[in-house]
Structures are given as C-alpha cells and as structure tokens.
Design goal:
The chain is an alpha/beta fold and about 270 residues long. The protein folds into three domains: about 30 residues, no CATH class; about 55 residues; about 150 residues, Nucleotidyltransferase, domain 5 (2-Layer Sandwich), CATH 3.30.420. The chain has a five-stranded mixed β-sheet with strand order 3-2-1-4-5, with helices on both faces. Helix 3 crosses helix 4 and helix 5 packs parallel to helix 7.
Length: about 270
Amino acid sequence: MLRGRLGVSERWACRVCGQHRSTQRREPTSAGDDEALRRELRAFSARRPRWGYRQAHTHLQDLGWEINRKRVQRLWREEGLRVAQRTRKRRRLGDSSGPKQLLRAEHPGHVWAFDFQFDQTADGHVLKLLNVVDEFTRQALVMHTARSITADQTVTVLQALVAVGGAPTHIRCDNGPEMTAHALIDWCTAHSTLTSYIDPGAPWQNPFVESFHSRVRDELLNVELFSCLAEARVVIEDWREDYNTQRPHSALGRRPPAVFAAAWTPAPAT
C-alpha cells in the first residue's frame, strides 16, 4: 500500500511488478473525531428517519462541527444510513362486531347492505349515490344522491330509515372511509346494530348490493343523462320506486321486492 501521489520510483516499481498504477490506493486513516461523528449521524438518523445527509450536515454545523458535506455523505453511506422508500399507507380497516362466518339474512331488517356508486351530470360534475338494500327482501331502501356524501351524512340517511322501519340487526359494507368512521361505529353502537365488514378488495362478499349496482348501472345510469343534481334526484327516486314495486326479481319468485316484503310472514316457531 502506497501513500500519497506516486513518485518516479513508485511508478517504476509498478512497471516492474506488472501492476497498474490505478490499483494503488492511499492507506486510509481515521480522524480522531470519526467515531463521535458516526455516533451523532446514527442518532440523527434515528430521530429524523425522513431526513438525508444534507440535513445531517446542516445539523452538524449548527452543533459547531467544522466539517464539509462530502465527508458527511461518505460517513452517512458507510454507516448504511439512508432515507427509506415510502411504503403505501395502511388504511384503517373496520372491525366486524357481528359473526365472522358467512352472514345470511333470515328476515326483513336482519341485514342491510350499503355502498356508494358514482356517475356524473351533463356538466361533468360528480354524482355520488348511497344505496342501501335489505338483503332479505331485496328492497332498495334508499338511493341518496348528492355531489359528495360524508360519514356524518351517511349516518343521517341511515337514521331516517330507522325512524321509519327500525334499525337492522346487522349492516354489511366495505372498508371505505365513510364506513369505518367513528360516526358510523357510534351510530351502530347506539342502535345495537352489528357490523359485518367485507375483506379489502373482495366486493363479491357483498353480493346483494353489487348485484343491485349492476341493475342501476345497466337500467338507469347508462340510459339517463342528468342535466343537474335536482333532476338526478327525481329520476333516481322514481326508478327506485319502480324497482321496488314493479320490477320482478328472480330470487323472489318473480315478484317485486315490495310485494314480497308485504306478503312475507315469519315461520312458526318449532
């Protein structure tokens, strides 16, 4: 190992030994403050995991270190300190309070399924629909239409339904922010309603509302062009009434949901 720049004798020695001059390196020497500096960099990285060596250099200068940026960069790299790549944020998932096994509706008001659907008016502005379906009777209980719908507004819509026909035993929904918000969870607790959240990315676990959405898309949203929000609300509500009272449903013996619900009587206890 040779020190400093190669002189004439050193270059001649390299030629005699058959070694290229670029293979010769200066023997590294550690500065007296090297270990203390490394400790400070490690501590800084632990406190500021999203900051890099440039911020570390500024921090050291603020502490009184007389050090150039390149040395900080070298030590930062040698210590394996680097800003970790950002990972995808974890989304809060709902915690089902109902049974973990497959939940099947056994009577009207047993399970309500709800989800959101999107469309737009002629001016390109968004329409958001909150659709609530009774899984047993297949009735579309509400199709609330607005430009946007928050968790608090979702609770207001559900509360209006409860005022008419009582609270469901369970609600089934996905893990959207409106569904996992404290407003909805508190509402369920107040009405002794259990939650049944589907797994993320598994819409087939909410089949009744997904099937209803396909009918809405095919028979209404792909057909009607709404000029404004007011028109959308009127047309969508008219379609909901027609769906409940006139449209035969194969799962209900070709009867409309409202007719099936009116004729249903609970089985006698055994």
